Amino acid sequence: VMTQSPAFLSVTPGEKVTITCQASEGIGNYLYWYQQKPDQAPKLLIKYASQSISGVPSRFSGSGSGTDFTFTISSLEAEDAATYYCQQGNKHPRTFGQGTKLEIK
Amino acid sequence: EVQLVESGGGLVQPGGSLRLSCAASGFTFSSYEMNWVRQAPGKGLEWVSYISSSGSTIYYADSVKGRFTISRDNAKNSLYLQMNSLRAEDTAVYYCARGFGSYWGQGTLVTVSS
Q: What's the burial of A29, exposed, middle or buried (CB within 10 Å: 0-12/13-18/19+)?
Protein backbone atom coordinates (compact mmCIF):
# COMPACT_ATOMS: atom_id res chain seq x y z
CA VAL A 1 0.00 0.00 0.00
CA MET A 2 1.24 3.45 -0.91
CA THR A 3 0.09 6.29 1.34
CA GLN A 4 0.42 9.65 -0.35
CA SER A 5 -0.11 13.02 1.33
CA PRO A 6 -1.49 15.55 1.27
CA ALA A 7 -4.53 14.90 -0.92
CA PHE A 8 -4.82 18.58 -1.81
CA LEU A 9 -2.47 21.55 -1.90
CA SER A 10 -3.07 25.21 -2.73
CA VAL A 11 0.23 27.03 -3.28
CA THR A 12 1.39 30.44 -4.50
CA PRO A 13 3.68 30.60 -7.52
CA GLY A 14 7.33 30.71 -6.52
CA GLU A 15 6.79 28.70 -3.35
CA LYS A 16 8.22 25.25 -2.67
CA VAL A 17 5.93 22.21 -2.83
CA THR A 18 6.52 18.93 -1.01
CA ILE A 19 4.53 15.72 -1.43
CA THR A 20 5.26 12.55 0.49
CA CYS A 21 4.64 8.90 -0.25
CA GLN A 22 5.02 6.12 2.28
CA ALA A 23 5.19 2.44 1.41
CA SER A 24 3.79 -0.17 3.77
CA GLU A 25 6.97 -2.20 3.28
CA GLY A 26 10.41 -1.49 1.88
CA ILE A 27 10.53 -0.98 -1.87
CA GLY A 28 14.16 0.05 -2.30
CA ASN A 29 14.24 2.89 -4.77
CA TYR A 30 11.49 1.50 -7.06
CA LEU A 31 9.37 4.61 -6.77
CA TYR A 32 8.05 6.73 -9.64
CA TRP A 33 6.38 10.14 -9.69
CA TYR A 34 3.84 11.20 -12.34
CA GLN A 35 2.05 14.39 -13.24
CA GLN A 36 -1.42 14.29 -14.72
CA LYS A 37 -3.23 17.29 -16.10
CA PRO A 38 -6.97 17.18 -16.82
CA ASP A 39 -7.90 15.04 -19.81
CA GLN A 40 -4.30 14.03 -20.38
CA ALA A 41 -2.37 10.84 -19.82
CA PRO A 42 0.06 10.76 -16.90
CA LYS A 43 3.60 11.94 -17.53
CA LEU A 44 6.64 10.45 -15.82
CA LEU A 45 8.63 13.06 -13.90
CA ILE A 46 10.98 11.06 -11.65
CA LYS A 47 12.14 7.43 -11.82
CA TYR A 48 13.91 5.25 -9.23
CA ALA A 49 12.96 7.72 -6.49
CA SER A 50 15.40 10.45 -7.46
CA GLN A 51 16.47 10.10 -11.09
CA SER A 52 15.43 12.91 -13.37
CA ILE A 53 13.80 12.37 -16.74
CA SER A 54 15.09 14.00 -19.90
CA GLY A 55 13.06 17.06 -20.80
CA VAL A 56 11.48 17.45 -17.37
CA PRO A 57 12.24 20.83 -15.73
CA SER A 58 14.88 20.74 -13.04
CA ARG A 59 12.53 22.26 -10.46
CA PHE A 60 11.05 18.76 -10.07
CA SER A 61 13.03 16.41 -7.84
CA GLY A 62 12.59 13.31 -5.72
CA SER A 63 14.32 11.68 -2.78
CA GLY A 64 14.03 8.76 -0.41
CA SER A 65 14.44 5.02 -0.26
CA GLY A 66 12.96 2.09 1.57
CA THR A 67 9.56 3.24 2.80
CA ASP A 68 9.63 7.05 2.81
CA PHE A 69 9.78 9.21 -0.29
CA THR A 70 9.48 12.90 -1.05
CA PHE A 71 8.64 14.77 -4.25
CA THR A 72 9.57 18.44 -4.44
CA ILE A 73 8.84 21.33 -6.76
CA SER A 74 11.46 23.88 -5.83
CA SER A 75 9.68 26.95 -7.16
CA LEU A 76 6.10 26.50 -8.27
CA GLU A 77 4.98 27.73 -11.67
CA ALA A 78 1.41 28.21 -12.88
CA GLU A 79 1.77 25.38 -15.41
CA ASP A 80 2.41 22.93 -12.56
CA ALA A 81 -1.28 22.80 -11.66
CA ALA A 82 -2.05 19.09 -11.89
CA THR A 83 -2.54 15.93 -9.89
CA TYR A 84 0.62 14.11 -8.85
CA TYR A 85 0.90 10.38 -8.18
CA CYS A 86 3.56 8.10 -6.79
CA GLN A 87 3.78 4.45 -7.87
CA GLN A 88 5.86 1.62 -6.49
CA GLY A 89 7.56 -0.74 -8.92
CA ASN A 90 9.17 -3.16 -6.49
CA LYS A 91 6.59 -5.89 -6.82
CA HIS A 92 3.14 -6.58 -8.15
CA PRO A 93 0.56 -5.17 -7.78
CA ARG A 94 2.31 -1.98 -8.81
CA THR A 95 0.18 0.25 -6.66
CA PHE A 96 -0.29 3.98 -7.01
CA GLY A 97 -0.68 6.52 -4.27
CA GLN A 98 -4.06 8.20 -3.94
CA GLY A 99 -2.85 11.35 -5.70
CA THR A 100 -2.22 14.95 -4.69
CA LYS A 101 -4.19 17.67 -6.45
CA LEU A 102 -2.10 20.82 -6.68
CA GLU A 103 -3.93 24.10 -7.10
CA ILE A 104 -2.25 27.40 -7.91
CA LYS A 105 -3.35 30.30 -5.71
CA GLU B 1 8.89 9.01 -31.91
CA VAL B 2 7.36 6.60 -29.44
CA GLN B 3 3.62 6.22 -29.90
CA LEU B 4 1.05 4.10 -28.09
CA VAL B 5 -2.48 4.18 -29.47
CA GLU B 6 -5.31 2.41 -27.65
CA SER B 7 -8.54 1.34 -29.30
CA GLY B 8 -11.52 -0.89 -28.66
CA GLY B 9 -13.29 1.00 -25.91
CA GLY B 10 -16.99 1.70 -25.90
CA LEU B 11 -20.32 1.08 -24.20
CA VAL B 12 -21.02 -2.46 -23.04
CA GLN B 13 -23.69 -4.00 -20.85
CA PRO B 14 -22.84 -5.55 -17.48
CA GLY B 15 -21.62 -9.09 -18.01
CA GLY B 16 -20.41 -8.29 -21.50
CA SER B 17 -16.95 -8.39 -23.06
CA LEU B 18 -14.57 -6.04 -24.81
CA ARG B 19 -11.08 -6.39 -26.24
CA LEU B 20 -8.78 -3.42 -26.00
CA SER B 21 -5.77 -3.03 -28.28
CA CYS B 22 -2.67 -0.88 -28.00
CA ALA B 23 -0.64 -0.29 -31.15
CA ALA B 24 2.98 0.54 -30.48
CA SER B 25 5.44 2.31 -32.77
CA GLY B 26 8.74 4.18 -32.62
CA PHE B 27 10.55 1.63 -30.47
CA THR B 28 11.45 -2.05 -30.35
CA PHE B 29 8.20 -3.31 -28.85
CA SER B 30 9.50 -6.82 -28.19
CA SER B 31 12.14 -5.43 -25.81
CA TYR B 32 9.77 -3.79 -23.35
CA GLU B 33 7.38 -4.91 -20.64
CA MET B 34 3.96 -3.35 -20.89
CA ASN B 35 1.16 -2.44 -18.51
CA TRP B 36 -2.51 -1.54 -18.53
CA VAL B 37 -3.60 1.19 -16.10
CA ARG B 38 -7.12 2.51 -15.68
CA GLN B 39 -8.76 5.58 -14.24
CA ALA B 40 -12.40 5.67 -13.24
CA PRO B 41 -14.17 9.00 -13.79
CA GLY B 42 -12.92 11.53 -11.26
CA LYS B 43 -10.75 8.95 -9.51
CA GLY B 44 -7.07 8.10 -9.25
CA LEU B 45 -4.90 5.76 -11.23
CA GLU B 46 -5.26 1.99 -10.78
CA TRP B 47 -2.71 -0.45 -12.13
CA VAL B 48 -4.53 -3.32 -13.90
CA SER B 49 -2.09 -5.75 -15.50
CA TYR B 50 1.53 -6.38 -16.52
CA ILE B 51 3.15 -8.50 -19.21
CA SER B 52 6.85 -9.10 -19.68
CA SER B 53 8.60 -8.42 -22.97
CA SER B 54 8.32 -12.05 -24.08
CA GLY B 55 4.83 -12.54 -22.67
CA SER B 56 5.99 -15.29 -20.34
CA THR B 57 5.28 -13.40 -17.10
CA ILE B 58 1.89 -11.88 -16.36
CA TYR B 59 0.30 -10.24 -13.33
CA TYR B 60 -3.16 -8.87 -12.59
CA ALA B 61 -4.76 -6.66 -10.00
CA ASP B 62 -7.03 -8.63 -7.68
CA SER B 63 -9.98 -6.55 -8.93
CA VAL B 64 -9.70 -8.03 -12.45
CA LYS B 65 -8.10 -11.44 -11.85
CA GLY B 66 -10.04 -14.21 -13.52
CA ARG B 67 -11.97 -11.78 -15.74
CA PHE B 68 -9.29 -9.93 -17.73
CA THR B 69 -6.52 -11.42 -19.88
CA ILE B 70 -3.48 -9.50 -21.05
CA SER B 71 -1.56 -10.62 -24.12
CA ARG B 72 0.79 -9.29 -26.75
CA ASP B 73 1.82 -9.98 -30.33
CA ASN B 74 5.39 -8.84 -30.79
CA ALA B 75 5.22 -9.48 -34.53
CA LYS B 76 2.36 -6.98 -34.77
CA ASN B 77 3.75 -4.55 -32.15
CA SER B 78 0.49 -4.83 -30.29
CA LEU B 79 -0.74 -5.23 -26.73
CA TYR B 80 -4.21 -6.49 -25.83
CA LEU B 81 -6.60 -6.64 -22.90
CA GLN B 82 -9.49 -9.05 -23.14
CA MET B 83 -12.12 -8.00 -20.62
CA ASN B 84 -14.92 -10.43 -19.76
CA SER B 85 -17.73 -10.38 -17.20
CA LEU B 86 -17.59 -6.61 -17.13
CA ARG B 87 -19.04 -4.73 -14.17
CA ALA B 88 -20.11 -1.14 -13.65
CA GLU B 89 -16.99 -0.59 -11.55
CA ASP B 90 -14.82 -1.40 -14.58
CA THR B 91 -15.96 1.87 -16.16
CA ALA B 92 -12.78 3.85 -16.73
CA VAL B 93 -10.29 5.24 -19.18
CA TYR B 94 -7.82 2.46 -19.94
CA TYR B 95 -4.23 3.38 -20.71
CA CYS B 96 -1.43 1.22 -22.01
CA ALA B 97 1.98 2.20 -20.68
CA ARG B 98 5.50 1.15 -21.59
CA GLY B 99 7.65 -0.19 -18.80
CA PHE B 100 7.63 2.01 -15.71
CA GLY B 101 5.32 4.50 -17.33
CA SER B 102 7.94 6.20 -19.48
CA TYR B 103 5.34 6.45 -22.25
CA TRP B 104 1.56 6.29 -22.16
CA GLY B 105 -1.17 6.15 -24.75
CA GLN B 106 -4.01 8.65 -24.83
CA GLY B 107 -6.42 6.17 -23.32
CA THR B 108 -9.67 4.55 -24.41
CA LEU B 109 -12.93 4.90 -22.50
CA VAL B 110 -14.81 1.80 -21.41
CA THR B 111 -18.32 2.35 -20.09
CA VAL B 112 -20.20 -0.55 -18.52
CA SER B 113 -23.87 0.28 -18.22
CA SER B 114 -27.28 -1.07 -19.09
A: middle
**Sign of the Cα pseudo-torsion (B23, B26, B30, B34, in order):** negative
Measured CA to CA, the distance from residue A21 to residue B75 in angstroms comes to: 39
Question: How much is the average pLDDT of B85-109?
Answer: 96
Q: What is the pLDDT of residues B10-62, one digit of tens each?
A: 999 999 999 999 999 999 999 999 999 999 999 999 999 999 999 999 999 99
Backbone φ and ψ of A77, nearest 5° = -115, 155
Q: Are the beta carbons of A93 and B101 separated by less than 8 Å?
A: no
Using the Cβ of A96 and the Cβ atoms of chain B, whether some distance falls under 8 Å is answered with yes
What is the structure's pLDDT at A22? 97
CA atoms within 13 A on the CB side of B7: 4
Contact B105 A36 (CB under 8 A): no
Please tell me the distance from the alpha carbon of residue A96 to that of residue A21, in angstroms, as a whole number.
10
Give phi and psi for B88, each to the nearest 5: -55, -35
